[in-house]
């Protein structure tokens, strides 16, 4: 990106998604002396200013954060491990686990469905998910045959209407599964959000980036 800050300093662009990642990143930005001046929940702007004229924030879909950073449209960003595994991480430096937006990726089924016996009997399962790469790897490692059905949202609906036998989704409190009469039958992995940095920006803008990365690292260690 060609934005230049005051005094001709390179502009730093941070890619974030709305919601939990944005909210959990604010204290980390604060620790680096950066305050975002607009609220993405009430503003329709997609490029937000901060109190530092040299730093701006792009609001993008969670699954698009790695793409903006990979291509250098953003210098750095925050993305969940779930999203990074699907993206593949190409062109991204991932220096810090920020320990924010913690949740888990799990398999869930209709309350009446006996998942363990279906797996034991070698049944072929229909699995609906947004996370097809992670799901494929998980079931392959267990030797379970699956037909993956790619969805882009509301995975919880799929077993309810007979589209699939199971879903692979991220679970936080479990409230969404319970509300839809689904049960979590297997945890695939713990998830948290990571800082990702464009590899070229890391070299060319190191002086501007380094203090921010260090402040993020210190603040995230305090998250426990
Ligand atoms: P919960 O009802 O608290 O288990 O939250 C589950 C719903 O929120 C699911 O639809 C998830 O897609 C979404 N969700 C919860 N935590 C996260 C997270 N850290 N990152 C992305 N999506 C999440």
Automatic annotation (TrEMBL):
Signal sequence, renumbered to the chain: none
Record-linked SUPFAM superfamilies: Periplasmic binding protein-like II
Pfam family, one: HisG
Assigned keywords, A-Z: Amino-acid biosynthesis, ATP-binding, Cytoplasm, Glycosyltransferase, Histidine biosynthesis, Nucleotide-binding, Transferase
Main location: cytoplasm
One cellular-component annotation, GO: cytoplasm
Recorded metabolic or biological pathway in which this protein acts: Amino-acid biosynthesis; L-histidine biosynthesis; L-histidine from 5-phospho-alpha-D-ribose 1-diphosphate: step 1/9
GO-annotated biological processes: L-histidine biosynthetic process
Residue span(s) of domain ATP phosphoribosyltransferase catalytic: 61-217
Enzyme Commission number(s): 2.4.2.17
Catalytic activity: 1-(5-phospho-beta-D-ribosyl)-ATP + diphosphate = 5-phospho-alpha-D-ribose 1-diphosphate + ATP
Entries under PROSITE patterns matching the protein: ATP_P_PHORIBOSYLTR
UniProt-annotated location(s): Cytoplasm
GO molecular function (one): ATP binding
Domain of life: Bacteria
Function recorded in the entry: Catalyzes the condensation of ATP and 5-phosphoribose 1-diphosphate to form N'-(5'-phosphoribosyl)-ATP (PR-ATP). Has a crucial role in the pathway because the rate of histidine biosynthesis seems to be controlled primarily by regulation of HisG enzymatic activity.
Subunit structure: Heteromultimer composed of HisG and HisZ subunits.
Protein family membership: Belongs to the ATP phosphoribosyltransferase family. Short subfamily.
Protein name according to UniProt: ATP phosphoribosyltransferase
Organism: Massilia timonae CCUG 45783
């Amino acid at each position: 990106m060609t934005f230049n800050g005051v005094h001709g300093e390179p502009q730093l662009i941070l890619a974030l998604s709305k919601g939990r990642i944005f909210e959990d990143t604010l204290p980390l930005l604060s620790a680096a002396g950066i305050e975002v001046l607009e609220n993405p929940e009430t503003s329709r702007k997609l490029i937000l200013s901060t109190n530092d004229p040299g730093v701006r924030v792009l609001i993008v879909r969670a699954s698009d954060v790695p793409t903006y950073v990979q291509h250098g449209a953003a210098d750095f960003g925050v993305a969940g491990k779930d999203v990074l595994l699907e993206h593949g991480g190409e062109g991204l430096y991932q220096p810090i686990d920020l320990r924010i937006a913690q949740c888990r990726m799990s398999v869930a089924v209709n309350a009446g469905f006996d998942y363990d016996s279906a797996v034991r009997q070698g049944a072929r399962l229909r699995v609906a998910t947004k996370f097809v790469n992670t799901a494929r790897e998980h079931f392959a490692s267990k030797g379970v045959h699956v037909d993956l059905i790619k969805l882009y949202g509301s995975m919880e609906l799929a077993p309810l209407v007979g589209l699939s036998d199971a879903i692979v989704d991220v679970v936080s409190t479990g409230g969404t599964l319970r509300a839809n009469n689904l049960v979590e039958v297997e945890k695939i992995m713990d998830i948290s959000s990571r800082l990702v940095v464009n590899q070229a920006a890391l070299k060319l803008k190191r002086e501007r980036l380094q203090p921010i990365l260090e402040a993020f690292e210190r603040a995230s260690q305090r998250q426990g």
